[in-house]
Design brief:
This is Peroxisomal ATPase PEX1. By secondary structure, the protein is of the alpha/beta class. Helices cover 43% and strands 12% of the residues. Helix 4 crosses helix 6. It starts with a strand and ends with a helix.
Length: 281
Amino acid sequence: ILLYGYPGCGKTLLASAVAKECGLNFIYVKGPEILNKYIGASEQSVRDLFKRASAARPCVLFFDELDAIAPRRGHDNTGVTDRVVNQFLTEMDGAEGLNGVYVLAATSRPDLIDPALLRPGRLDKALLCDLPNQAERLDILSKVAESMTTDGSMNLDELAAATTGFTGADLQALVYNSYLDAVHEATKELDLSTAEKMDPNTADLPDLPFHILQAGQAQPLSRADKVTLAKQTAPVGPKSSHNSGGPLFTPPPISQAHLRESLRQAQPSLSHAEANRLAQM
């Protein structure tokens, strides 16, 4: 099966989800990492991958960015990719008769792939990973927002309606940027009194039950001695963050205002011209 579509629309995520839901072993291969400068090494890498998949069956063998390793033959001066494509064709014909080996591939440029790989019996099934519609954008935003703290003002329906043309990766980045805005806003609101409480030099020193013995009499500590002793006992004190294990900074919640500000600064990663060009393919 060939997964093709716009960049950032979840082709790689879909392949890993298929293997997980089906309970199959999953071998993930980045296309360019197969290529090697030594003669014959690239073809050997392809053979080794199919041997691994056969030994681990039932197994999904997933090739990401297939256009980088299987372009149309006859356009490579070195002949490396031509030999890799030939090896792919041989292994794909062999994998057809092997039970439990499933080949998935993903690409954003299906027009660059050698047509021989797309004939029946090889990658004969092609599925389009299109841009998400409004309902799908809402699902993506809801899933990303689950892992973050939000307040009651968040309206994801409004955000889903205003993000036409955004890919799944764009929507994820949108929520992450709004979280960063919330963090920056919270750090700016830290007033001077909070900073002073964290500094033993300016904070209200605790009533330390220690005295200096001089000539058999207890003399109270001076302020300088209290500061020195407070610094030394802070890591083990009852109010120390090291002792309590509590965080010094609580993650702030994301509001609708943060999402709107992030949306105002965001742009779809896929331009209209690029989207139209890919749609024609």
